[in-house]
Amino acid sequence: MSEQVTATDLPQSDGGFRRPWVMFGGTLLAGGVAVNALNDLATLTGLTERDGVLNVIGGLSVTAGLFMSLYGAMDKVWFNRGKAVKPQPRLRMALLGLIGLAVVLILLSLLVPAISAATQAAKDTAAAEPSVLQSADGFCEMTVPGGWGPNADLAALQPTPAMQVSDPAGNIALIVRHEAKIDLRTMTLDEYTSLNIKSITDVLSDVTQSRILTVELGLHMARTVEITGTEGDNRVTYRLSTVEAPDRYFVILGWSAPSHADDARNRFNSIISRFRVLNSAR
């Protein structure tokens, strides 16, 4: 009959752990966690897009570190006749800790990309939504496409526009000005439109002009015309709209390079169709 071997009869080695394996595995684990954490932090704060290569390197490092640490810890377990001797309490705690850490890392690897994707989707949705802008003087408002907003360079124009916006790329721009009728000689909307057309064509060469269209904006009548010409070394396409209110004329002037004229025309038509006069009496 063979002699029964007990846990106390088994040889012990440096406190039950193969330290080189555990230390090397812990280093890989810490490095992988750091790489993934920095990658996730940069993504969440919007500093950069998620780096797939760093994500893979961090994941592999974490996985390798976990397995190497587990291997070093499991070296404490000795087998006798197919049955494992129970590990020491500190080994059990270490194993539980490593397993818990692995679970946390897996959950983070699932949650962080989901949160990042949801945040980006919310930003994209907000950017795509049209926004309503009102002039500082309270005379008018307009609805502009998502991503459009005030432009500091246009705000510096003289005389100062009541409103000024541009697209995110800066390819299309639009300003709004207005004048009290009492400050002008008596004139019709068509005469006022002609004066504004002349102020544009006088500074252009090689001018082409579309026919003037009549547009109804709620209770107000408007005229719209497109003018293309050369200004200095560049060709420019203008979209001019004049709106008549009881006590005031409004001028909506947009422009772009001819290469963006089709897109600009659609944008301008949308903006003009939803232009609102709030108050023209002051």
Protein described:
- With 282 residues, the protein is α+β, with helices and mostly antiparallel strands.
- It folds into 2 domains: 7-127; 131-277, Mog1/PsbP, alpha/beta/alpha sandwich (Protein Transport Mog1p, Chain A, 3-Layer(aba) Sandwich), CATH 3.40.1000.10.
- Helices cover 42% and strands 26% of the residues.
- The protein contains 6 helices and 13 strands.
- The chain has helices spanning 19-44, 52-74, 89-128, 152-155, 189-201, 261-273, and strands spanning 79-80, 83-84, 131-134, 140-144, 149-150, 163-166, 172-180, 205-209, 213-217, 220-231, 234-244, 248-256, 276-277.
- Strands 5, 6, 7, 8, 9, 10, 11 and 12 form an 8-stranded antiparallel sheet that branches. A 3-stranded antiparallel sheet has the order 3-4-13. It has a two-stranded antiparallel ribbon with strand order 1-2.
- Strand 1 (79-80) and strand 2 (83-84) form a beta hairpin.
- The longest helix is centred in the middle third of the chain and has 40 residues, at 89-128.
- The chain is elongated.
- The model is unreliable at 5-18 and 78-82 (pLDDT under 50).
